[in-house]
Amino acid sequence: MDGVHLLGEWYGCPAETPEFTRADALRKLCLDVARAAGLTVVGDAFHQFVPQGVTGTVLLAESHLAIHTWPEYGFVTVDVYVCNLATDNSAKAERLFRALESALKPQRARFQTIHRGGKDE
Amino acid sequence: MDGVHLLGEWYGCPAETPEFTRADALRKLCLDVARAAGLTVVGDAFHQFVPQGVTGTVLLAESHLAIHTWPEYGFVTVDVYVCNLATDNSAKAERLFRALESALKPQRARFQTIHRGGKDE
């Protein structure tokens, strides 16, 4: 099952962004940008940490999005993983990833792409 | 935010394993082994595909577990990501990963470990 997994580490995210600190705001953003990217949402779970921080995942028909925020460090990690069962979803994954990055505005970022699955040899 | 991310691709998983095909069984397994590994569950979402296949995530205080099954190909992908905020959770992540592997019994596997986060340079 061929697929692509985008991994981001975002530093220096502005503390005043509501999506960075509040689970309800981050959930809405993730669902909105996943659908706008053309991906199919089949479930989600978000958790608000106290005093701060959010962790959440969106289940996609194409695989998943996972995001974790640490407002005390200005830090976020993001995973967007899509499989390419019926069609190549790589461009949709990239669109989702970049939409989240635009919303959370990291000053510095690390990024890597991993190929998942492939032939059973 | 230092962390470790374990990625598995499992091939040749036996079709008769209930956890491989049924969302309720896979959810119970994931929650049980996450807790048994000493990790803290803060939420979850699982989805049953029709006619087959399951996708699910468990939110952890330490980050997340994500799993996708494709019974028609005998194939599973697994992600276990833990951050090491207060303590090194790497051994717990490894324990969780190996418990899932024991349950789903792949005949062949690929495995990689990725370091997440680290210093903001």
Question: Can you list the strand order of the major beta sheet of chain A?
Answer: 2-3-4-5-1-6
Task: Report on the biggest sheet of chain A.
Answer: 6 strands, antiparallel
Count of helical segments of chain A?
3
**What class, by secondary structure content of chain A?**
alpha+beta
Biggest chain pair interface: A-B, 40 and 40 residues
What would a concise description of this structure say?
In chain A, a hairpin with a 5-residue loop joins strand 2 (41-48) and strand 3 (54-60).
Verbal overview:
The structure is a homodimer of 121-residue chains. With 121 residues, the first copy, chain A, is of the alpha+beta class. Chain A has three helices and six strands, in the order E-H-H-E-E-E-E-H-E. Chain A has helices at residues 18-21, 23-36, 90-104, and strands at 3-11, 41-48, 54-60, 63-70, 75-83, 108-116. In chain A, strands 2-3-4-5-1-6 form a six-stranded antiparallel β-sheet, with helices on one face. In chain A, a hairpin with a 5-residue loop joins strand 2 (41-48) and strand 3. The longest helix of chain A is centred in the C-terminal third of the chain and has 15 residues, at 90-104. Chain A is globular. The two termini of chain A are 12 Å apart. The relative contact order of chain A is 0.31. The model of chain A has no long low-confidence stretch (mean pLDDT 95). Chain A binds chain B through residues 1, 3, 5, 7, 9, 11-12, 42-47, 49, 55-57, 59-61, 63-64, 66, 68, 70, 73-75, 77, 79, 81, 83, 85, 108, 112, 114, 116-118, 120, and chain B through 1, 3, 5, 7, 9, 11-12, 42-47, 49, 55-57, 59-61, 63-64, 66, 68, 70, 73-75, 77, 79, 81, 83, 85, 108, 112, 114, 116-118, 120.
